[in-house]
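dumping this here before i forget
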Amino acid sequence: MKIKFILLFALLYALGFAQVGINNTSPKATLQIDGKNPGTTIDGIIVPRLTGDQMFDMPIPNGTENEATLVYATSAASATNQANSSEKVKAVKNPGFYYWDGTKWSAMVSATTISNTLLAYVKPMNILLNDGDTYTTSPNNPLDAPTGPAIRLFDADYNGLGDFKIINNPLNVTMWDNTEKLIRVPQQLLGYCITINLSLKFQKLTSNAESSRLVAYTGNAVVNATNGTYTGGSKIKDLMFTGTKTATGTVDPNYVRDELVLSPIIVTQQIIDFGIKLYVGSAMNGSISFYEPILTVDYGVVNTTL
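structure:
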């Protein structure tokens, strides 16, 4: 016991007048502790281990004098002590490291804290727009995709009374420009990958011969709708989708939907500056009549602090 007190006194004396190193002859701070050999010894520092209720009972005063006192809670404080008006152990809900902030015990950063912080600032961004009153089956007013190589601008109106919208817009930006008929992408998403899905309703097929075309342009592209060519700007995607023979159903005996998906689309500065315009066409000898187009754009998960 006498030897232990001598060693403790020597350590305290050294701390008062010099830098101290444990397993280190050249400490770089007031106290530097280096590990020995983790393969054969247990290295580390064990701080006081207390239950949450013991932390509540500790007579630690408010103020700056004891700030930064560190303990490890082996269990949560009781519900009664957590609800105490002093809020001394209100945060002690799980085992872990806690420090005294001057008025209460606060948790050190944990995986849960990091996760909650991320969820507070990282949000999904997407839109689903259903044009239910422009291109209708009754009255018959189709969005006609012309015979190839001709194409036409996808110009659905998503501001009508019969339209249905689901919008997750954490950046509070324009995603569908209903005036210019194009998809907008904000500057914050430069380099992101987005997905465009166009769901088109059409009459059920009796063969597998029909196919449709979906083209996406950006930049200052000037599109010749008659021959399907363009000048300037950039063509992002140009895909053909083959229709499949469909059986008679009970939900809608005359119509079926086809999903035209453009993915992935890498967001460039040109897309941010000019947006994305969609064009539809028919890849067979005759036009295709589409109805009630549903446009979905998935921008992914975005950082709302950008």
